[in-house]
Specification:
The protein has eight helices and 16 strands. By secondary structure, it is α+β, with helices and mostly antiparallel strands. It has four domains: 78 residues; 77 residues; 115 residues, no CATH class; 49 residues. It has a five-stranded antiparallel sheet with strand order 1-2-3-4-5. The radius of gyration is 26 Å and the shape is flat. The C terminus is likely disordered.
Length: 354
């Protein structure tokens, strides 16, 4: 990391470094050679099958259920294979000539990420800034501003992380983490819910699978044996139910003085589950792969119930716990090492930008 200080501004510049990137580039370049061969053969197969109009191989295959399955698999594979190759190419360019900048001025923060002369910029007013921090596991430098979370640079070194946290880290203790929003309800109760779907990409994929399976059943119900139609219909119904659940179910938390409850809403149906008084706590565990899970856990009728958990990142869990502490008046036990790390990060920006 390079720090350029001028009158009234500080610029942090990040460039790829280290010999390891040579091996990464060599591996990706070798992989792209195989990718190009696979892409060529797949495109030749698809284009060749489509030639000939109504008498083409593709048209004949689509009159049979197996043809739909094989054709759908090939097209799906080709789509993701193409996206994977493009992502690898962009990564090579980023490793070779990438440059990330964060400019901290008196009244705004400017992010610039690009390759060579090509780059995009984002600007945020200082009053929009909520947090500036380095993620613990991935070591991404992240800004939370406005209603979004934005990556400044990936893979920040340990020394750079210490320097950033010492001079420029920003943390807001009393506000709710960005991924959630709060709404005041009657009786001094605050309703907490996600700003957006958790995993919208998964919801889109499930929706596409549901639509495809339903179309398959409609088109080929007469050609399939009875047991085949039944299995296809069951799969379609399960996918449809999962899609409706993801699209219309809302998980909310209700926080009041000496009160915390889980609330689930699905269309007009509402279910409220009170959490045992003062049973909330933060727990941390590590699996055999070294991944750390930080969870906010409570009890419902004496049985443990996870309120929220994250893997290899504890900021949102700790932020949610602190917000609930402030609103409910409860003291939520937090492991000492997490509390020390959280307290150390709660500082304003220092240096040339102040």
């Amino acid at each position: 990391m390079q720090i350029d200080e001028t009158a009234g501004s500080v610029r942090l510049v990040f460039r790829p470094s280290g010999w390891l990137r040579v091996f990464v580039v060599a591996f990706l370049a070798f992989w792209l050679c195989g990718w190009a061969v696979g892409e060529w053969f797949a495109l030749q197969l698809v284009i060749g099958a489509m030639q000939g109009g109504d008498e083409s191989q593709a048209a004949k295959a689509l009159t049979h259920p197996v043809g739909w399955m094989v054709g759908g698999f090939i097209l799906t594979w080709l789509l993701f294979w193409t996206l994977g190759g493009l992502a690898a190419l962009v990564e090579i360019l980023r490793i070779v000539a990438g440059r990330d900048e964060l400019t901290i001025q008196h009244d705004e923060y400017v992010i610039r990420r690009g390759v060579g002369p090509f780059a995009f910029q984002r600007r945020f007013r200082r009053e929009q800034l909520r947090e500036l921090y380095v993620r613990r596991k991935s070591r991404d430098l992240v800004i939370e501003a406005g209603s979004g979370r934005h990556v400044v640079s990936r893979g920040v070194t340990f020394d750079d992380r210490k320097a950033i946290e010492a001079r420029f880290a920003v943390s807001s203790r009393d506000t709710l983490p960005l991924r959630w929003k709060e709404t005041e309800e009657q009786g001094g109760v605050v309703c907490i819910e996600a700003r957006a779907f958790d995993g919208p990409g998964c919801l889109v994929i499930v929706g596409l699978l549901f639509a495809t399976s339903a179309l398959f059943v409609i088109c080929f119900a007469k050609q399939l044996p009875a047991w085949g139609t039944l299995i296809a219909a069951l799969i379609s119904l399960l996918l449809g139910a999962q899609f409706l659940r993801g699209a219309f179910e809302r998980r909310q938390w209700l926080v009041g003085r000496d009160r915390f409850a889980l609330r689930y809403r699905w269309l007009w149906h509402t279910r409220v589950i009170p959490v045992d008084e003062r049973s909330l706590r933060v727990e941390q565990s590590c699996d055999s792969d070294g991944d750390e899970t930080t969870a906010l856990v409570g009890s419902v009728n004496g049985r443990p119930r996870t309120v929220h958990s994250d893997v290899n990142e504890d900021r949102d869990v700790l932020g949610l716990a602190r917000f609930i502490e402030a609103r409910s008046g409860w003291t939520i036990p937090i492991p000492p090492e997490l509390r020390r790390a959280s307290t150390a990060a709660e500082r304003g920006p220092h240096g040339g930008s102040s």
